[in-house]
Amino acid sequence: MSSIRPDSPCIALCSTALGDNVCRGCARTFGEISQWCFMDEAERERVWQCLPRRQRLLKLAAACGALLELDDLDGVEWGRLPGGGRYRLDEAGVLHWLGPDGHAESLQVPALPLEDAAAWLLRR
User: Residue 67 half-sphere exposure, CB side, CA atoms within 13 Å?
Assistant: First the structure.
């Protein structure tokens, strides 16, 4: 049995109407939501592919007491914390940190509780 995607990732919990840059419901950016009906299939597919990774970034941001802000660094999306540090989770389950001064660190997180990963980020 094949699964078919809905027309939109929207799950009716839109937080961009409240001023968030990334929706806490579907994980799309304000720009992606506002342009969704004008996107072609390739553009929509690119967004669909980003959503699982962004959902993880949203959870980490929330655990850090922050809203998710996204930065694109060399074609890779990073979350940004209020202090300016950036973080991302790669496909292997490694949490990467990039400080405002360029200092970088990494942490294996596959079995690490979300709160511990957030605490690690906040200590950077």
Answer: 12
Residue type, 118: A
Length of the chain: 124
The Cα–Cα gap between 54 and 46 comes to 13
Q: Where are the beta strands (DSSP E) in the chain?
A: 69-73, 76-80, 86-89, 94-98, 104-108
Please give the chain's pLDDT, 124 residues, in tens. 446 888 899 988 888 878 889 999 999 999 999 999 999 999 999 999 999 999 999 999 999 999 999 999 999 999 999 989 999 988 888 999 999 999 999 998 777 888 999 999 999 8
Q: What is the largest CA-CA distance in the chain?
A: 50
Partnered with residue 89 across adjacent β-strands are 95
pTM of the model: 0.86
Q: How far apart are CA 48 and CA 87, in angstroms?
A: 21
